[in-house]
Design a protein that fits this description.
The chain is mainly alpha-helical and about 150 residues long. It is about 55% helix and about 0% strand. α4 packs across α5. InterPro entries: ELMO_dom (IPR006816), ELMO_domain-containing (IPR050868).
Length: about 150
């Protein structure tokens, strides 16, 4: 799922991945603070796992809407507003959608994207290795003297 969302962010329709992930985090935290997730947390007797699943379910819904309704950056405010309303009103519905997606994915039948995008392919796991700032070494004359 994460690779498909990342692939969507690299498509020419300009899905603003970083901006959207910050907003989905905000939605998840607000839903927790406003006790929208309390029933599910109590049902599962877990908080962190529910919030993590809720985040993934919300991001899945966002990517699905963005892709199927061909949204652009100019639509992002409206999409986020609708997503936040749905997340607070029907968190269980979002979680059920995630469960269904993951069940299909385990059988190799799930695809977030209705069709493959032309352009950059999904990154391989080796492409997703992050380096800490302290590990960066300046190249020859580039960045010489910078800390």
């Amino acid at each position: 799922m994460a690779q498909e969302i990342f692939r969507l962010s690299r498509h020419h329709i300009q899905f603003p991945f970083c901006l959207m992930s910050v907003n989905v985090t905000r939605i998840a935290i607000q839903a927790l603070r406003e006790e929208c997730l309390s029933r599910e947390c109590n049902r599962q007797q877990k908080v962190i796992a529910v919030v993590n699943s809720f985040y993934a379910a919300t991001f899945l819904r966002l990517a699905h809407v963005w892709r199927t309704q061909q949204k652009t950056i100019s639509d992002s405010g409206f999409v986020l507003k609708d997503l936040e309303a749905l997340a607070k009103k029907s968190p269980r519905r979002l979680l059920k959608t995630l469960e269904s997606y993951l069940a299909r994915a385990s059988k190799g039948q799930a695809s977030l994207l209705a069709q493959k995008y032309p352009g950059p392919q999904a990154p391989r796991a080796s492409d997703l290795t992050f380096t800490g700032v302290c590990d960066l070494q300046p190249h020859s004359s580039e960045g010489a003297g910078l800390i």
